[in-house]
Predict the structure.
Amino acid sequence: MRRLLLLISIFTFTLFGCASKKANKSIALFIPGICDNSPVYQMLRDGVEASVNEYNQKNDVKVKLFVMEAGTNQAEWSSQLTALTASNEYDVIISSNPSLPDLVIPILKKFPKQKYILLDASAEGNPNIYTVCYNQYEQAYVTGYIGGLFSKSHKLALIAAQEYPVMNEVIAPYFEKGAKAANNLSSVEFRVVGNWYDATKGAELSDAVIKAGVDVILPICGGASQGVITSCKEKGAYITWFDDDGFSKAPGVIISSSTMAQEKMSREITDKYLNDQVEWGKAAMVGIKEGYINFVQDNPLYISTVDQSIRDKMAALIEDIKTGNVTIK
Ligand code: RBF
Protein backbone atom coordinates (compact mmCIF):
# COMPACT_ATOMS: atom_id res chain seq x y z
CA MET A 1 0.00 0.00 0.00
CA ARG A 2 2.77 2.38 0.98
CA ARG A 3 4.58 1.57 -2.25
CA LEU A 4 1.45 2.18 -4.21
CA LEU A 5 0.96 5.57 -2.55
CA LEU A 6 4.58 6.46 -3.26
CA LEU A 7 4.17 5.47 -6.90
CA ILE A 8 0.99 7.52 -7.20
CA SER A 9 2.65 10.56 -5.66
CA ILE A 10 5.67 10.24 -7.94
CA PHE A 11 3.35 9.93 -10.93
CA THR A 12 1.30 12.98 -9.85
CA PHE A 13 4.42 15.04 -9.18
CA THR A 14 5.87 14.15 -12.57
CA LEU A 15 2.62 15.02 -14.29
CA PHE A 16 2.24 18.35 -12.47
CA GLY A 17 5.92 19.11 -12.69
CA CYS A 18 5.88 18.69 -16.47
CA ALA A 19 2.57 20.48 -16.89
CA SER A 20 3.64 23.51 -14.89
CA LYS A 21 7.05 23.64 -16.63
CA LYS A 22 5.29 23.63 -19.97
CA ALA A 23 2.64 26.18 -19.08
CA ASN A 24 4.84 28.66 -17.21
CA LYS A 25 7.33 29.79 -19.77
CA SER A 26 10.29 31.64 -18.38
CA ILE A 27 12.60 33.96 -20.27
CA ALA A 28 15.99 35.37 -19.38
CA LEU A 29 17.10 38.55 -21.10
CA PHE A 30 20.87 38.79 -21.13
CA ILE A 31 22.09 42.36 -21.79
CA PRO A 32 25.77 42.13 -22.82
CA GLY A 33 26.66 45.55 -21.45
CA ILE A 34 24.39 48.16 -19.86
CA CYS A 35 21.18 49.69 -21.20
CA ASP A 36 22.10 53.25 -20.29
CA ASN A 37 23.31 55.13 -23.41
CA SER A 38 23.15 52.00 -25.59
CA PRO A 39 19.97 52.30 -27.67
CA VAL A 40 20.33 48.74 -29.06
CA TYR A 41 20.04 47.35 -25.55
CA GLN A 42 17.34 49.72 -24.29
CA MET A 43 15.21 48.94 -27.36
CA LEU A 44 15.79 45.22 -26.82
CA ARG A 45 14.65 45.45 -23.22
CA ASP A 46 11.62 47.60 -24.05
CA GLY A 47 10.49 45.19 -26.79
CA VAL A 48 10.83 42.00 -24.75
CA GLU A 49 9.17 43.58 -21.70
CA ALA A 50 6.27 44.90 -23.81
CA SER A 51 5.64 41.44 -25.27
CA VAL A 52 5.76 39.69 -21.89
CA ASN A 53 3.53 42.33 -20.23
CA GLU A 54 0.96 42.04 -22.98
CA TYR A 55 0.99 38.25 -22.75
CA ASN A 56 0.63 38.35 -18.97
CA GLN A 57 -2.32 40.73 -19.18
CA LYS A 58 -4.14 38.42 -21.56
CA ASN A 59 -3.31 35.05 -19.98
CA ASP A 60 -3.84 33.50 -16.57
CA VAL A 61 -0.63 31.50 -16.77
CA LYS A 62 2.07 34.12 -16.39
CA VAL A 63 5.42 34.25 -18.14
CA LYS A 64 8.43 34.93 -15.93
CA LEU A 65 11.02 37.42 -17.20
CA PHE A 66 14.44 37.82 -15.65
CA VAL A 67 16.63 40.66 -16.92
CA MET A 68 20.37 40.45 -16.39
CA GLU A 69 22.60 43.41 -17.22
CA ALA A 70 25.93 41.67 -17.62
CA GLY A 71 28.02 44.85 -17.48
CA THR A 72 30.91 46.06 -19.61
CA ASN A 73 33.54 43.45 -18.65
CA GLN A 74 33.31 41.25 -21.73
CA ALA A 75 35.67 38.66 -20.21
CA GLU A 76 32.88 37.74 -17.78
CA TRP A 77 30.07 37.28 -20.29
CA SER A 78 30.80 33.65 -21.09
CA SER A 79 30.74 32.53 -17.44
CA GLN A 80 27.66 34.66 -16.76
CA LEU A 81 25.86 33.06 -19.71
CA THR A 82 27.02 29.60 -18.66
CA ALA A 83 25.64 30.15 -15.14
CA LEU A 84 22.34 31.41 -16.54
CA THR A 85 22.10 28.35 -18.79
CA ALA A 86 23.21 25.88 -16.11
CA SER A 87 20.52 27.16 -13.73
CA ASN A 88 18.04 25.38 -16.03
CA GLU A 89 15.51 28.04 -15.02
CA TYR A 90 14.89 29.61 -18.40
CA ASP A 91 13.24 28.08 -21.44
CA VAL A 92 14.90 30.67 -23.64
CA ILE A 93 17.70 33.18 -23.26
CA ILE A 94 17.33 36.30 -25.41
CA SER A 95 20.27 38.57 -26.14
CA SER A 96 21.77 40.90 -28.73
CA ASN A 97 25.12 41.57 -30.33
CA PRO A 98 27.29 39.95 -32.97
CA SER A 99 29.67 38.27 -30.51
CA LEU A 100 27.00 36.03 -28.94
CA PRO A 101 26.93 33.02 -31.30
CA ASP A 102 30.61 32.36 -30.51
CA LEU A 103 29.80 32.51 -26.79
CA VAL A 104 26.71 30.28 -26.77
CA ILE A 105 27.76 27.56 -29.23
CA PRO A 106 30.39 26.12 -26.82
CA ILE A 107 27.87 26.34 -23.93
CA LEU A 108 25.38 24.29 -25.95
CA LYS A 109 27.86 21.39 -26.07
CA LYS A 110 27.34 21.02 -22.28
CA PHE A 111 23.71 22.11 -22.08
CA PRO A 112 22.14 20.92 -25.34
CA LYS A 113 18.56 21.72 -24.38
CA GLN A 114 18.90 25.48 -23.96
CA LYS A 115 17.30 27.72 -26.59
CA TYR A 116 18.74 31.13 -27.51
CA ILE A 117 17.27 33.99 -29.52
CA LEU A 118 20.08 36.30 -30.62
CA LEU A 119 19.40 39.65 -32.26
CA ASP A 120 21.97 41.76 -34.12
CA ALA A 121 23.80 38.46 -34.70
CA SER A 122 24.04 35.72 -37.27
CA ALA A 123 24.38 31.92 -36.93
CA GLU A 124 22.57 29.53 -39.23
CA GLY A 125 21.78 25.84 -38.84
CA ASN A 126 21.94 25.29 -35.09
CA PRO A 127 18.54 23.93 -33.95
CA ASN A 128 18.83 25.67 -30.58
CA ILE A 129 19.54 29.14 -31.94
CA TYR A 130 17.49 31.67 -33.88
CA THR A 131 19.22 34.83 -35.06
CA VAL A 132 18.15 38.08 -36.70
CA CYS A 133 20.64 40.54 -38.06
CA TYR A 134 19.96 43.98 -39.45
CA ASN A 135 21.27 44.98 -42.86
CA GLN A 136 24.08 47.19 -41.59
CA TYR A 137 25.52 47.49 -45.08
CA GLU A 138 22.49 49.67 -45.82
CA GLN A 139 22.47 51.37 -42.42
CA ALA A 140 26.14 52.36 -42.70
CA TYR A 141 25.97 53.29 -46.40
CA VAL A 142 23.06 55.74 -46.04
CA THR A 143 24.77 57.25 -42.98
CA GLY A 144 27.99 57.76 -44.94
CA TYR A 145 26.00 59.12 -47.88
CA ILE A 146 24.46 61.97 -45.89
CA GLY A 147 27.81 62.59 -44.19
CA GLY A 148 29.44 62.90 -47.62
CA LEU A 149 26.74 65.28 -48.86
CA PHE A 150 26.84 67.42 -45.71
CA SER A 151 30.57 67.71 -44.98
CA LYS A 152 32.18 70.97 -46.10
CA SER A 153 35.74 69.79 -45.47
CA HIS A 154 35.03 66.33 -47.00
CA LYS A 155 36.68 64.87 -43.92
CA LEU A 156 34.58 62.49 -41.84
CA ALA A 157 35.33 60.22 -38.88
CA LEU A 158 33.95 57.08 -37.33
CA ILE A 159 34.62 56.81 -33.60
CA ALA A 160 34.06 53.18 -32.58
CA ALA A 161 34.09 51.67 -29.09
CA GLN A 162 36.08 48.66 -30.25
CA GLU A 163 36.97 46.71 -33.36
CA TYR A 164 34.84 43.66 -34.17
CA PRO A 165 34.12 41.84 -37.42
CA VAL A 166 30.84 43.66 -38.21
CA MET A 167 32.53 46.99 -37.46
CA ASN A 168 35.63 46.25 -39.57
CA GLU A 169 33.96 44.41 -42.45
CA VAL A 170 30.56 46.09 -42.70
CA ILE A 171 29.97 49.33 -40.79
CA ALA A 172 33.29 51.13 -41.35
CA PRO A 173 33.78 50.17 -45.04
CA TYR A 174 30.14 50.87 -46.00
CA PHE A 175 30.12 54.20 -44.14
CA GLU A 176 33.14 55.16 -46.23
CA LYS A 177 31.59 53.76 -49.41
CA GLY A 178 28.45 55.85 -48.85
CA ALA A 179 30.48 58.99 -48.12
CA LYS A 180 32.54 58.53 -51.31
CA ALA A 181 29.46 57.78 -53.43
CA ALA A 182 27.99 61.10 -52.29
CA ASN A 183 31.21 63.00 -52.93
CA ASN A 184 34.35 61.30 -54.18
CA LEU A 185 36.54 63.79 -52.30
CA SER A 186 35.35 62.31 -48.99
CA SER A 187 37.76 60.56 -46.64
CA VAL A 188 37.04 58.82 -43.33
CA GLU A 189 39.23 58.71 -40.20
CA PHE A 190 38.74 55.69 -37.93
CA ARG A 191 39.34 55.96 -34.16
CA VAL A 192 38.79 53.46 -31.32
CA VAL A 193 37.80 54.35 -27.74
CA GLY A 194 38.65 50.92 -26.26
CA ASN A 195 35.39 50.47 -24.34
CA TRP A 196 31.66 51.30 -24.49
CA TYR A 197 31.51 53.83 -21.64
CA ASP A 198 34.39 56.34 -21.50
CA ALA A 199 32.86 59.71 -22.47
CA THR A 200 36.08 61.58 -21.67
CA LYS A 201 38.03 59.45 -24.15
CA GLY A 202 35.20 59.86 -26.67
CA ALA A 203 35.49 63.66 -26.34
CA GLU A 204 39.30 63.55 -26.65
CA LEU A 205 39.19 61.52 -29.86
CA SER A 206 36.49 63.78 -31.24
CA ASP A 207 38.41 66.98 -30.36
CA ALA A 208 41.50 65.57 -32.09
CA VAL A 209 39.83 64.65 -35.38
CA ILE A 210 37.94 67.96 -35.47
CA LYS A 211 41.28 69.73 -35.01
CA ALA A 212 42.54 67.82 -38.06
CA GLY A 213 39.65 69.15 -40.15
CA VAL A 214 36.86 66.59 -39.67
CA ASP A 215 33.38 68.15 -39.57
CA VAL A 216 31.08 65.09 -39.55
CA ILE A 217 31.44 62.22 -37.05
CA LEU A 218 29.66 58.88 -36.67
CA PRO A 219 29.97 57.72 -33.04
CA ILE A 220 29.32 54.01 -32.36
CA CYS A 221 30.61 53.78 -28.82
CA GLY A 222 27.73 53.54 -26.33
CA GLY A 223 28.21 55.88 -23.35
CA ALA A 224 31.37 57.32 -24.93
CA SER A 225 29.14 58.89 -27.62
CA GLN A 226 28.09 61.42 -25.00
CA GLY A 227 31.64 62.80 -25.10
CA VAL A 228 31.54 63.00 -28.90
CA ILE A 229 28.30 65.00 -28.66
CA THR A 230 29.81 67.45 -26.15
CA SER A 231 32.91 67.88 -28.32
CA CYS A 232 30.92 68.47 -31.53
CA LYS A 233 28.64 70.97 -29.77
CA GLU A 234 31.65 72.92 -28.48
CA LYS A 235 33.70 72.79 -31.67
CA GLY A 236 30.93 73.28 -34.22
CA ALA A 237 31.09 69.84 -35.87
CA TYR A 238 28.18 67.56 -36.79
CA ILE A 239 27.07 64.03 -35.95
CA THR A 240 25.45 61.26 -37.95
CA TRP A 241 23.59 59.11 -35.39
CA PHE A 242 23.19 55.35 -35.51
CA ASP A 243 20.66 52.83 -34.12
CA ASP A 244 17.83 55.04 -32.77
CA ASP A 245 16.38 58.49 -33.48
CA GLY A 246 19.01 60.70 -31.86
CA PHE A 247 18.01 64.16 -33.16
CA SER A 248 16.80 65.45 -29.78
CA LYS A 249 20.11 64.56 -28.11
CA ALA A 250 21.72 67.60 -29.71
CA PRO A 251 19.39 69.71 -31.88
CA GLY A 252 21.25 71.33 -34.77
CA VAL A 253 24.29 69.08 -34.24
CA ILE A 254 22.79 65.71 -35.16
CA ILE A 255 22.21 65.75 -38.92
CA SER A 256 20.79 62.24 -39.38
CA SER A 257 19.53 59.13 -37.65
CA SER A 258 19.77 55.70 -39.31
CA THR A 259 17.75 53.46 -37.07
CA MET A 260 17.29 49.74 -36.56
CA ALA A 261 13.82 48.63 -35.44
CA GLN A 262 15.21 46.61 -32.57
CA GLU A 263 12.27 47.30 -30.23
CA LYS A 264 9.75 46.16 -32.85
CA MET A 265 11.86 43.12 -33.70
CA SER A 266 12.42 42.04 -30.11
CA ARG A 267 8.73 42.42 -29.34
CA GLU A 268 7.76 40.42 -32.42
CA ILE A 269 10.24 37.62 -31.80
CA THR A 270 9.20 37.34 -28.13
CA ASP A 271 5.55 37.15 -29.25
CA LYS A 272 6.54 34.41 -31.68
CA TYR A 273 8.39 32.53 -28.97
CA LEU A 274 5.41 32.71 -26.62
CA ASN A 275 3.25 31.31 -29.43
CA ASP A 276 5.74 28.54 -30.29
CA GLN A 277 6.42 30.02 -33.73
CA VAL A 278 10.18 30.54 -33.69
CA GLU A 279 11.93 28.96 -36.66
CA TRP A 280 14.87 27.48 -34.78
CA GLY A 281 18.05 27.12 -36.81
CA LYS A 282 17.19 30.06 -39.08
CA ALA A 283 19.22 33.24 -39.52
CA ALA A 284 17.13 36.17 -40.73
CA MET A 285 18.48 39.42 -42.21
CA VAL A 286 16.25 42.48 -42.41
CA GLY A 287 16.86 45.90 -43.87
CA ILE A 288 15.27 48.95 -45.46
CA LYS A 289 12.88 47.03 -47.73
CA GLU A 290 11.56 44.97 -44.82
CA GLY A 291 11.10 48.09 -42.68
CA TYR A 292 13.70 47.28 -40.02
CA ILE A 293 16.33 49.80 -41.09
CA ASN A 294 15.00 53.32 -41.42
CA PHE A 295 16.51 56.65 -42.37
CA VAL A 296 14.51 59.17 -40.30
CA GLN A 297 13.10 61.86 -42.60
CA ASP A 298 10.08 63.13 -40.68
CA ASN A 299 11.77 64.53 -37.56
CA PRO A 300 11.37 68.36 -37.61
CA LEU A 301 14.99 68.62 -36.42
CA TYR A 302 16.14 66.83 -39.60
CA ILE A 303 14.18 69.30 -41.68
CA SER A 304 15.49 72.35 -39.78
CA THR A 305 19.14 71.18 -39.72
CA VAL A 306 19.64 69.77 -43.23
CA ASP A 307 19.09 71.71 -46.49
CA GLN A 308 16.28 70.70 -48.81
CA SER A 309 18.71 69.81 -51.63
CA ILE A 310 20.45 67.22 -49.41
CA ARG A 311 17.15 65.92 -48.06
CA ASP A 312 15.91 65.42 -51.63
CA LYS A 313 19.01 63.38 -52.50
CA MET A 314 18.56 61.26 -49.37
CA ALA A 315 14.87 60.69 -50.14
CA ALA A 316 15.80 59.55 -53.65
CA LEU A 317 18.46 57.13 -52.34
CA ILE A 318 16.12 55.59 -49.76
CA GLU A 319 13.39 55.22 -52.38
CA ASP A 320 15.85 53.55 -54.78
CA ILE A 321 16.85 51.06 -52.10
CA LYS A 322 13.20 50.36 -51.26
CA THR A 323 12.22 49.74 -54.85
CA GLY A 324 15.34 47.68 -55.57
CA ASN A 325 16.74 50.21 -58.09
CA VAL A 326 19.84 50.39 -55.93
CA THR A 327 21.24 47.43 -54.02
CA ILE A 328 23.82 48.15 -51.33
CA LYS A 329 24.25 44.47 -50.31
N1 RBF B 1 26.56 48.62 -28.81
C1 RBF B 1 26.14 49.46 -27.87
O1 RBF B 1 25.39 50.40 -28.17
N2 RBF B 1 26.53 49.30 -26.56
C2 RBF B 1 27.34 48.29 -26.15
O2 RBF B 1 27.66 48.20 -24.98
C3 RBF B 1 27.78 47.37 -27.14
N3 RBF B 1 28.62 46.35 -26.82
C4 RBF B 1 29.10 45.53 -27.81
C5 RBF B 1 29.99 44.52 -27.50
C6 RBF B 1 30.48 43.66 -28.49
C7 RBF B 1 31.46 42.57 -28.12
C8 RBF B 1 30.07 43.83 -29.82
C9 RBF B 1 30.58 42.92 -30.89
C10 RBF B 1 29.19 44.83 -30.14
C11 RBF B 1 28.69 45.69 -29.16
N4 RBF B 1 27.81 46.73 -29.47
C12 RBF B 1 27.37 47.58 -28.48
C13 RBF B 1 27.55 47.09 -30.87
C14 RBF B 1 26.22 46.72 -31.42
O3 RBF B 1 26.15 45.31 -31.46
C15 RBF B 1 26.09 47.31 -32.83
O4 RBF B 1 27.10 46.82 -33.67
C16 RBF B 1 26.14 48.81 -32.82
O5 RBF B 1 25.22 49.33 -31.91
C17 RBF B 1 25.83 49.38 -34.21
O6 RBF B 1 24.56 49.05 -34.62
